[in-house]
User: Fold Succinate--CoA ligase [ADP-forming] subunit beta from Humitalea rosea.
Amino acid sequence: MNIHEYQGKELLKRYGVTVLDGYVAFTPEEAEAAAKKLPGPVYVVKSQIHAGGRGAGRFTNDPDGKGGVRVVKSIEAVKEAATAMLGNVLVTKQTGPEGKQVNRLYIEAGCDIARELYISLLIDRETSRITIMASTEGGMEIEEVAEHQPEKILRTAIDPAAGFSDFHARKLAFGLGLKGKQVAAFTKFVAAFYKAFVDLDCAIVEVNPLVVTGAGEIVALDAKVSFDDSALFRHKDIEALRDDSEMDPKELDAVKNDLNYVALDGEIGCMVNGAGLAMATMDIIKLYGSSPANFLDVGGTATAARVTEAFRIITSDVNVKAILVNIFGGIAKCDMIATGVVEATKTLGLKVPLVVRLEGTNVDLGKKILAESGLAIIPADNLADAAQKVVAAVKKVA
Assistant:
């Protein structure tokens, strides 16, 4: 789950991470009131959307104008910028051409920037450890730095048995060229940064840029915070920060129905139980010449109602030309899934080809239920057979 910059900064601040003073605003009047609480004379008006590259982005109603992050020097200019930004669509490299509507702003104090750095915490799948990444190339997209200047990315993995120690931060500080009291400030910053990451069950915390001020302070000028969805059950306060308007409507429906769904840009809808099997299903669809429209894992406790909801979400995607159901019956038995598929097909009046592959517990009973349903369900004997049939069905529709 992702949250907005201002929400991330509020959480990080609780752990002692240094951030600038700022206030969220939903109207130009609130933006003006927020600016009056800040010392001035410099203010920063920041669009709050779940996408990077806001400063370099452009609004669709003013493509040649200023971006989604604006530095101004008066309270009047804050209100003027807020009026221009709120309710309009901001297009960045990460939003795609459709962009995202700006519904809230963060009005922040100006900052005396001496240097811009980069820092992030994430789970490194190769080492199975929390890893700190840092770079002198703050303000740039880290993907571009990794591609063109990989030597400028510093990495330090934290042993989970020993945990974080100050020497991890000092090693990075020296690599970043920090000196004197900057090293101590950076060490304090990283210690708080790490504790927040662990305590809040984060998936990634990124600050770009992390700035060194003229006074030698280390300040988070930005904050991208993402959480492990599987741990949200123990962070109800964080789950309450979710901004539904930033989510794909289909993905939001899936969250509300305890389904693991990710929208993609293909043409074959997938309903599978188990993340690994879902990935294999998407891969084999590509192998046979088509592309998946989604990742959807109904889990091991799928019921007829959840299967119906899964079908409803899949078919709400206008790009879906066929559906592949791939189930390995275990906890979710094949007969239960088959009953759900039949009920969902009848309830929704499914109009696209449907291929079903069942294997595992009660598979013969499941196949019997499908065969006797009277519906135009295409059975498959194995995964390869299922993929070939659903791709052929799509080509026939096209």
